[in-house]
Amino acid sequence: MTVRTRIAPSPTGDPHVGTAYIALFNLCFARAQGGQFVLRIEDTDRARSTDESERMILDSLRWLGLDWDEGPDVGGPFGPYRQSERGDIYVRHARQLLEAGHAFKCYRTSEELDVLREARKAEGLQLALKPSDLALPEEEVARREREGWPYVVRMKVPSDGVCVVQDMLRGAIEVDWAQVDAQILLKSDGMPTYHLANVIDDHLMEISHVIRGEEWINSAPKHQLLYEYFGWDMPVLCHMPLLRNPDRSKLSKRKNPTSINYYRRMGYLPQAVTNYLGRMGWSMPDEREKFSLDEMMANFDIQRVSLGGPVFDLAKLTWLNGVYIREDLDDAALLAALREWAFNEAYVKQILPQVRPRVDTLSEVMPLAGHFFAGLPAIDQDSFTTVQLERETLVRLLQFLVWRLEEVSNWNKESLLVEVKGLASYFELKMKDFLAPVFIAVSGSTASTSVMDAMAILGSDMTRARLRHAIDVLGGVSKKQAKRFEKEYRDIK
Q1: Is residue 479 among the annotated active site residues?
Q2: To pair with 6 at 20 to 30 A between CA atoms, which of 283, 302, 444, 485?
C-alpha cells in the first residue's frame, strides 16, 4: 500500500500555526514511508472562504518548507483539489445515500430545531438530535416538498450503543452513539458539510492515513459510519494532541499569536518555526532540540508522539530562533534574511508614499517609519497619558476594535475605515479622538505616519497583536470585565 496523507485547511482566515503543525506531521509521516503528501482546500463555506486566505495558506506553508506533491496549485491525478470545484461529486454521493436509506431529507426550520434542542435541554437529555427527533408527519413532509421548502440532507445514526474507533496512537476509542447527532451532509444551498466532503475526498484521493487534531475524535463515528454506508475501506486514523497555551488551555489567538503570518512578520526564521513545531509532542531519537526538517523526516516515527498536550511556549520558540540566527546565519545569510523579512522592494514600496511627504532628510525616515520594521512597540501606561479617556473606556475601545478587526475578511484601508467609523460612532467620539490610542498602540508613538495606512500595510496579524499588547500594557481585561465587554459588544453588532 502506498502511504498518502493530506492536509485540508479552510481558507476562512489567517493561516493558523495549528494547520502548519498538522501539515508537518502529515508530511513527515508520508516522507518516512516513501509516500505522497496532498494539500486539499476545503472551501465549502462560501460565505467566509476567500482567495486571499487560500493564497496566504499556500504561501505560509511553503515559507515553512512544507511542500506538497498534489494540490490546487500543482495539480495531480485526483483533482480538482478545491472542494468548491467538486460539487457534482458530493451531490451524486448524497443521492446514493438517500436511495440506500442511509440518509434523509430534513425540512425542519432553524426555529423548529431551536425548540427541539431547548426541549431536550429542559428534560436533561443529550442534545444530539436523532432521525426520530427530526421526523415530521408524512403529510407535512409532502406539503413542504410540494411547496419547495428548503431542506438539508442528514445521515442516519444509531440511537444507542457504542461506536469503537481505532486510532494509531490511542488504540480503541469508544464514543457513545447517544452523543452523535444526525449530521447534516448536504446543506440547503447544495454544498456539502465537512463530514461528507472529507470522507468522499479522502476515499477518491486514495488517502491511506488521516492524521488530524484530536478535536475530530467525536466526529470519527460519523466518518466511520459513512465509510460503512458507502462500502469503502476507512483510512487509518491518528488524532494528534492539540497545541496548548502555557496555562494548558487550547491554543487561541486571545492568549497567544496563532497566525503563521505573525511569526513571519515578527522576524522568526522559517526553519526555527518548523523545528519548534516538530518538538510539539514529538522528539528525535537522540532527544536533541535543534534539527532540520530533513532530519525530522529521516528519523520520523509517529509512535514517538506524546499525547500529553504540547505547550506552545513563545519564549522557548524565541530562544530557539536566536540559536538559529547565531549558529546558522553568517553575515551574508543574515543580510539575506533581513532583506527577505522586511527590507525587500515590495514591502518598502508600500511604506515610501507614507514617509516621503513627511521628511526633509533621509535620516528622518527610520524614526518616522521604524514601526514598520519592528515587532511589538515599547510602550507602557504612560504612553497613553495624552489620551483623554478613562482607563476602562480606553481598554474597552481597544478590545472592541480587536474583536471588530477579527471579522474583517478583506484587509485594506477602505474596509478598516468602515469598521473604525462604526466604532467611533458607537463610542460617540470624533475619528481623531477614537484613533488617538490606536495610533499609540500601532505605531508606539504620538507622531508618525497615518495609522489607517499603517494598519493596512502591517497586516491583520501584526495590527491585532499590537492592539492586544496595548491592552496588556494598560492592565489587561479581568474575567468580570471580559463578560461585561462581550455582552455589550454582542448587543452593538
Answers
A1: no
A2: 283
Q: Using CA atoms, how far apart are residues 223 and 225, in angstroms rounded to an integer?
A: 5
Q: Within a 10 A sphere around the Cβ of 466, how many other Cβ atoms?
A: 27
Candidate list 156, 222, 253, 316, residue with the active-site label: 253
Beta strands 103-106; 152-155: pairing state = antiparallel
Query: If residue 153 lies in a helix (H) or strand (E), which one and from where to where?
Result: strand 152-155
344 vs 86: CA distance, rounded Å: 39
The model's pTM:
0.92
C-alpha to C-alpha distance for 40 and 21, rounded to whole angstroms: 16
For residue 213, what are the β-bridge partners? 240
Ranges for all domains in the chain classified under CATH 3.90.800.10:
89-193
Residue among 249, 328, 329, 320 at smallest CA distance from 289: 320
The pLDDT of 431-436, averaged and rounded, is 95
Does the annotation flag 253 for ligand binding? yes
Distance CA 286, CA 63 (A): 27
pLDDT, tens only, 372-417: 999 999 999 999 999 999 999 999 999 999 999 988 888 999 999 9
Mean pLDDT of the chain: 94
pLDDT at 295: 97
CATH code assigned to 346-492: 1.10.10.350
Q: Write out the E strands in 300-362.
A: none
Preceding amide of 192 cis, omega within 30: no
Q: How confident is the model at residue 492 (pLDDT cuts 50, 70, 90)?
A: confident
Nearest-angstrom CA–CA distance, 211 and 198: 13
Residues of the chain with CATH 1.10.10.350: 346-492
Does residue 127 surpass a pLDDT of 80?
no
- Cβ–Cβ < 8 Å for 243, 19: no
Using one digit for the tens of pLDDT, what is the confidence trace for 268-285?
999 999 999 999 989 999
* Alpha carbon 368 to its chain's center: 34
Cα separation, 156 vs 255, in Å, equals: 39
Helices 87-99 and 220-230 pack at an angle, to 10 degrees, of 80
The number of beta carbons lying within 10 Å of the beta carbon of residue 163 is: 18
Q: Which CATH class is domain 89-193?
A: alpha beta
Q: Is 248 left (phi over 0), alpha (psi -120 to 50) or beta?
A: left
